[in-house]
Amino acid sequence: MNAISCLLLAAGRGERMRPLTDDTPKPLLEIKNQSLLAWHLNALSQAGIGQVVINHAWLGQKIEDALGNGNQFGLKISYSPEIHALETAGGIRQALPLLNPSDYFLVMNGDIFCPDFPIRRLVNQLEQLRKLPKQPLAHLVMVPNPAQHLEGDFYLADHQVSDTPTEGAERLTFSGIGLYHRDLFKDLEIGIPAKLAPLLREAISKNRVSGEKYTGPWHDVGTPQRLRELNAVNE
After folding, report:
1. In CATH terms, is domain 6-233 a member of 3.90.550.10?
2. How far apart are CA 235 and CA 31, in angstroms?
């Protein structure tokens, strides 16, 4: 088993997916008869990651009832419930004691579909990150800009993420998959909502964020139409 732990983000309300999410947490919506979270959990198990934490808020008990302690996936699952959604960074900060990372840990959005993503290869880059003179506070997986987000998020050139264009840099979209160093969240208070983007931009300004481009299948399952399209393709 790989010693690194993984946090699956599953606390969102899924407003754009209503009415499907009125009674079902968004990450439990299914593609090819398997929930989005189950796709992730099976992939994590195959990659040798044994410890997973799932944060939740809206209908969170349904997530716990569906996934249990992780035995069905060959994993150990813990839960980080949020009475009120804490945003991405706030949710990560609250889950840190359960993740208990020595330095880096993996985070994946629970509402993306990327069945072939090479988790093991990503995690294997940790030793390279640890050897850098100035260790990155985050390593982001970037993808080509999808139709619903053509403006992208950040620039990527020579494995360095930037907020401004440089020669040879490509504007890409953050996939929702990343390796984070615990120090990125050290100034946040537990239980206080906090967004991830400001933390990343501050680290980017200090050249402390690395990244890579992934061109395999990746989908942000953000609307009922996208969910229907993915299920139609996978029938």
Report:
1. yes
2. 9
Whether residue 217 contacts residue 229, with contact meaning beta carbons closer than 8 Å, is answered with: no
Q: How far is it, in rounded angstroms, from Cα 223 to Cα 194?
A: 24
Percent over 70 (pLDDT), the chain: 98
Per-residue pLDDT tens for 23-65?
899 999 999 999 999 999 999 999 999 899 999 998 889 999 9
The residue type found at 125 is: Q
Name 172's Cβ contacts closer than 8 Å, sequence gap at least 6: 142, 143, 144, 145, 152, 153, 154, 155, 156, 213
| Contacts of 214 by beta carbon, 8 Å cutoff, 6+ apart | 114, 117, 141, 142, 143, 175, 177
Domain layout of the chain by residue ranges: 6-233
Q: pLDDT (tens digit, 9 = 90+) per residue, 148-194? A: 889 999 999 999 999 998 888 999 999 999 999 999 999 999 999 99
Distance (Å, rounded) from C-alpha 219 to C-alpha 212?
Answer: 17
Q: Give me the residue label for tokens 């945003």.
A: 87
3-state DSSP assignment of residue 31: strand
